[in-house]
TrEMBL record:
It comes from Kitasatospora paracochleata. The keyword Transferase does not apply. The lineage of its organism: Bacteria, Bacillati, Actinomycetota, Actinomycetes, Kitasatosporales. PROSITE patterns: NIRD (PS51300), RIESKE (PS51296). Gene3D superfamilies: Rieske [2Fe-2S] iron-sulphur domain. InterPro entries: NirD, Rieske-like_NirD, Rieske_2Fe-2S, Rieske_2Fe-2S_sf. Pfam families: Rieske_2. This is Nitrite reductase (NADH) small subunit. Keywords: 2Fe-2S, Iron, Iron-sulfur, Metal-binding, Nitrate assimilation, Oxidoreductase. Residues 19-117 form the Rieske domain. NCBIfam families: nirD_assim_sml. Its EC number is 1.7.1.15. It comes from the Bacteria.
Length: 117
């Protein structure tokens, strides 16, 4: 009898459909990866310490650099998970995209789902 290994992949809702971005087991907790979406935009995909997956734009709105995937993950005292930009250290809520250091700034967030393949 042959056993088929089931893999789980991460998909983002980008544009009108879901786009596969990477296998779940390749994304380490506390780390992010940059992905190129079909329309040319870049997204940053993160796996937090609680094993939840988040996706935001990869562009830091303060510098214009595509670096958020390299940022440090953390959480506030009330449990909001954020990524801190590696350049100027602005923190962005991974659920809402809100900048925790400047309420007038937000980054796009993407819906995420896991799919077995």
């Amino acid at each position: 009898m042959t056993t088929v290994a089931v893999q789980t992949r991460i998909e983002l809702l980008a544009g009108r459909g879901w786009t596969a971005v990477c296998d779940l087991d390749l994304l380490l907790p506390g780390r992010g990866v940059a992905v190129l979406l079909p329309d040319g935009r870049q997204a940053a995909v993160f796996r937090d310490a609680r094993d939840r997956i988040h996706a935001t734009a990869n562009r830091d709105p303060f510098t214009g650099a595509y670096v958020l995937s390299r940022g440090l993950l953390g959480s506030t005292a009330d449990g909001r998970v954020y990524v801190a930009s590696p350049l100027l250290k602005h923190r962005f809520d991974l659920e809402t995209g809100e900048c925790l250091d400047d309420e007038s700034v937000r980054i796009p967030v993407y819906a995420v789902r896991l799919a077995e393949v």
